[in-house]
TrEMBL record:
SMART domains: AAA. Belongs to the ABC transporter superfamily. Residues 2-237 form the ABC transporter domain. PANTHER family: OSMOPROTECTANT IMPORT ATP-BINDING PROTEIN OSMV. This is ABC-type quaternary amine transporter. It comes from the Bacteria. Signal peptide: none annotated. One of its GO terms (molecular function) is ATP hydrolysis activity. It is an enzyme of class 7 (translocase). Gene3D superfamilies: P-loop containing nucleotide triphosphate hydrolases. Keywords: ATP-binding, Nucleotide-binding, Transport. Its EC number is 7.6.2.9. The keyword Transcription does not apply.
Length: 273
């Protein structure tokens, strides 16, 4: 479990990125921070692995303040995936994935074996192991980034807008892969996005944030959709438009669900009994 306790981050220029933030992130679930650019969501993420230090308050992992942990060791124990993969261009795919295992003392052979294993896990052909990032598509680079984040078998995986730079088709594929990985690997995932549809697709818990990481609403996608905290949240999630504003339409073949633009989104299946 990760817990933020009255956390504030004030930068030297006076900017308050996070102001008195509290949140419990449950273990083995995906929590998504969603909000507009500059609302503090990436700052929150980076305070978990001490890439950013809070000005006040504490961030705890399983009841222990992360400030009491050695920074480098903490970061090596937590998976981190960023936009564009953040791959080292002069390392091969296998070498990129094997970076943390090598830093943690595993032999070159053992680290490469782990890299090949993880390529299978994230859906990459192991024949690509000796290619360089420049020889991969954007989606393939992101898969390498996810594999690298998993290489040390961390309990926690931090993901900072990891799919934001790929096209919509690849993004949808990567989202499905993350759902599969979470089901199979059972990690505590903290995910940052500005896309509310992505947040609702991936998150077990979604935190909608405003400037200064002010909590507008926290809950499951169903809870937020069914009971938005206020008009702003309702507008932000699109409760009255698109595919979240559905109505029933009768057709010659039965009832279907239609969105606010009149597009059929699915067939209404009557329950049994």
């Amino acid at each position: 479990m990760i817990e933020f306790r009255n956390v504030t981050k004030r930068f030297p220029d006076g900017t308050v990125a996070v102001d008195s933030f509290d949140l419990v992130i449950p273990s083995r679930r995906t929590t998504v921070f969603v909000g507009s650019s500059g609302c503090g969501k990436t700052t929150l993420l980076r305070m978990i692995n001490r890439m950013v230090e809070p000005t006040s308050g504490t961030v705890e992992i399983d009841g222990e303040d992360v400030a009491a942990k050695q920074g480098v060791a903490l970061r090596r124990s937590i998976g981190y995936v960023m936009q564009n993969g953040g791959l080292m261009p002069h390392f091969t795919v296998a070498e990129n994935i094997a970076t943390v295992p090598r830093l943690n003392g595993r032999t070159r052979r053992a680290a490469r074996a782990r890299a090949l294993e993880l390529m299978d896990v994230v859906g990459l052909d192991t024949a690509m192991a000796d290619r360089y990032p420049s020889q991969l598509s954007g989606g393939q680079q992101q898969r390498v980034g996810v594999a690298r984040g998993l290489a040390a078998d961390p309990n926690i995986l931090l993901m900072d807008e990891p799919f934001g730079a790929v096209d919509p088709i690849v993004r949808a594929e990567l989202q499905r892969e993350l759902i599969r990985l979470q089901r199979d690997l059972d990690k505590t995932v903290v995910f940052v996005t500005h896309d509310v549809d992505e947040a609702f697709l991936l998150g077990d818990q979604v935190a909608i944030l405003a400037e200064g990481a002010r909590r507008l609403q926290v809950g499951s996608p169903s809870e937020i959709t069914e009971n938005p905290a206020d008009d702003f949240v309702a507008a932000f999630i699109g409760a009255d438009r698109g595919k979240r504003a559905l109505r029933v339409k009768q057709t010659p073949r039965g009832r279907v669900l239609v969105d606010a633009e009149g597009r059929t989104q699915g067939v209404l299946v009557e329950g049994e009994g």
